[in-house]
């Protein structure tokens, strides 16, 4: 990836290491930078999933005849029945 790139004072080595010409020490590059960035991004991704996508599962209750105390799988599936009932009420469109 960095084979042909020349930076003054730095000589590139194999296996993701850079050798500093001034000190002669090898410095690792590549993976450590991305790990830090992913560690900073991970809490944001988790909060977006938790607050934006998890609540969408609550919408499934609108399609069931849910009774408290029963699980959603034990409830009767009614589909769009209640939505159609609301739309058929004459005063709904006013």
Please tell me about this protein's structure.
The strands form 2 sheets. Strands 1-2-3 form a 3-stranded antiparallel β-sheet, with no helix packed on it. The chain has a two-stranded antiparallel sheet with strand order 4-5. It has one domain (10-87). The model has no long low-confidence stretch (mean pLDDT 78). With 94 residues, the protein is an alpha+beta fold. A hairpin with a 4-residue loop joins strand 1 (10-12) and strand 2 (17-20). The chain contains 2 helices and 5 strands; from the N terminus they run E-E-E-H-E-E-H.
Q: Return Rg in Å.
A: 29 Å
Q: Give the count of helical stretches.
A: 2
Mean pLDDT: 78
Number of separate structural domains: 1
**Proportion in β-strands:** 5-15%
Order of the strands making up the biggest sheet:
1-2-3
User: Approximately how much helix is present in the residues?
Assistant: 25-40%
Number of strands: 5
Instruction: Write the element-wise H/E pattern from the N-terminal end onward.
Output: EEEHEEH
Return the structural class.
alpha+beta
Approximate shape: rod-shaped
How far do the termini sit from each other?
A: 65 Å
Question: What's the main sheet like?
Answer: 3 strands, antiparallel
